[in-house]
Amino acid sequence: MLRPLLLLLLVILGQGAARAQAPVLIVPDRVFDGTAPEAHPGWKVLIQGDRIVAAGPDVTAPAGAEVVTLPGTTLMPGLIDLHVHLFLHPYDETPWNDQVAKEPLALRTARAVAAARATLAAGFTTVRDLGTEGAGEADAGLKAAIEQGIVPGPRLLIASRALVATGSYGPKGFNGAVPQGAEEASGPELIAAVRRQIGAGADWIKLYADYRWRPSEPSRPTFSADELAQAVRTAHDAGRKVAMHASTPEGMRRAIAAGADTIEHGNDGTATEFAAMKARGIAFCPTLAASDAITRYTKASDATLQPKRASYAAALRSGVTLCVGGDTGVFKHGENAREIALMADWGLGLPRALIAATSGNAAILGLADRIGGVKPGLIADLVAVTGDPTQDATALGRVAAVFQAGRRVRP
Predict the structure, then answer these.
(1) Cβ atoms of residues 25 and 67 within 8 Å
(2) Whole-structure pTM over 0.85, yes or no?
(3) Angle, CA of 150, 155 and 157, to the nearest 5°
């Protein structure tokens, strides 16, 4: 009696596995492949398991395939945001100081779960989180929860607590000690801190090359040139890339000399710094959307954005590699595409901005052989939007479907 029942169970399980592995043919109106500046009308994409197996106008559905028709849409690689803070929420809701110093870790983690869900639903299937901003090493737990399928979210590359020079960060202005937004370290302790964060799960190391020593002061260098160089060497020895916050020319110069892999913000960067970055192969993440959001929150005039526009224009003229990451968390999670739209509107153009947000960002991460394009062999991270995003940035806000490693996660 048990033998027939066992055979029946094996047959049922085998049928279920076969169904799970059935190929899927996706039929949009057009495909943006992440490398060509124009979308390809009439293309279809075939996926099997978690991989793309074919893409082009002549792809047909094999026997037993599921056909997903998405009329009116453009299918494109899953978008990539290289500067997010899932443990922050918009500053016009709660100031940064209060988020870091007053919000309980459980509340911040619950918010981060919701932020990860919103990010994936917006078509961003991979993000680089550049610091928990006082939430300790909770990003490692969130990453594990996503990987184990406990909660939905994008592929996460994390930077743990990030690293700041002793006394240089915040929050400040409180009576007594309060949690800091990053791990403080200086001198020889900085090397130990880099290693400690890698041991805690950091995929990238984040360093602050400059910052405001007091809230009312302009940004100034924090770590010495030697400290930065030693930290970068330690990270690179461990196979980790390094992102550096640098807004000032001197901070940028120290980051460049130290061998950073990406420089974030560059608010006051000049042609000299961007030329040096290009020569060294360092990517620039301008975070335009954060600057735009803070201008709106403070009700400042658009004139306050002129220095930022000037530095971004200098970066464009230099030909430095651009990465797309808006400092999401300063503004609402799920609205990550603001950075793409601003980069395009401020001079890059939509096709180049979309390429940067897909294959470009994948290359910066060292993952171009896995994500960032629509071609056979890559992981089937895909998003369909209504309209043509190479012509209309608002199409990025009209997400019709999201596929993560071949599995449809929206709707």
Answers:
(1) yes
(2) yes
(3) 115
